[in-house]
Hints:
The protein is an alpha+beta fold. It has helices spanning 44-54, 114-125, 132-136, 139-142, 148-157, 165-168, 171-175, 181-193, 201-208, 222-226, 233-246; strands at residues 12-19, 30-37, 74-77, 80-83, 95-99, 105-108, 111-113. The protein folds into two domains: 12-112, Beta-grasp domain (Ubiquitin-like (UB roll)), CATH 3.10.20; 126-247, Orthogonal Bundle (Fumarate Reductase Iron-sulfur Protein, Chain B, domain 2), CATH 1.10.1060. The protein contains eleven helices and seven strands. FE2/S2 (inorganic) cluster binds next to loops.
Amino acid sequence: MKRIPLAQASRTLRLQVLRHNPRDPASEPHLQTFEVEEADSMTLFIALTEIRERQDPSLQFDFVCRAGICGSCGMIINGRPGLACRTLTKDLPQDIVLAPLPAFELIGDLSVNTGKWMRGMSERLETWVHNQGFARLDIDSLEQPMEPALAEQIYELERCIECGCCVAACGTARMHEDFVGAVGLNQVTRFRLDPRDERSDAEFYQLVGTEAGVFGCMTLLGCEDLCPKELPLATQIAFLRRRMVAAG
Ligand code: SF4
Ligand code: F3S
Ligand code: FES
């Protein structure tokens, strides 16, 4: 006789959330526990939204796209950085501890200012195409055909959503606040590959050939292990370092 599998009993999830408002001098960081009935295909984002709508409207966390595209919902989930909107509660134990990503300015509870950090990194590394054609408004020099294989290689690196998980996962970034992180080194590699960018290898290497750049990386590999877009970050960094050594 064919057995019909019993429906799995739904769980009551216990979410312990690190609460803190850095703008309130009376606020002390503490864990607050919320209980949520687990539903089918529930993500952490859905669980947090339910808490905010039904239990505590003051709970702060960020989201925009709910689809792993905007990079705004990064947080520490049971000790590991990840995206709340791409994390299914069924893949987690009943007890879930959530904390804000470290290394970024805390806005409140689970919300951090990754945008400010990313903007600072981008300005330091000048992560935009440097081409005199912009000054001359010479569109032809900017719109050159590109080999499909190269375009694909650049596109692969552009999949970064600037979520900050690689920075939060990196011991170097936690110790040295000026370290540009795997995200920064990935961006430098991206612009170095772009044939429209007129900077020389030496100019690129000047930007990242420091302790705040490739020489700060201790090959801890947390960045590559935890990047939600599965970018080959440690491989990129090793490549950049080898090129710099070869270029003398
Ligand atoms: Fe996020 Fe990966 Fe980009 Fe780092 S490299 S910011 S982990 S998408
Ligand atoms: Fe950090 Fe990744 Fe290097 S975790 S130390 S940037 S390999
Ligand atoms: Fe956009 Fe999660 S809400 S990546």
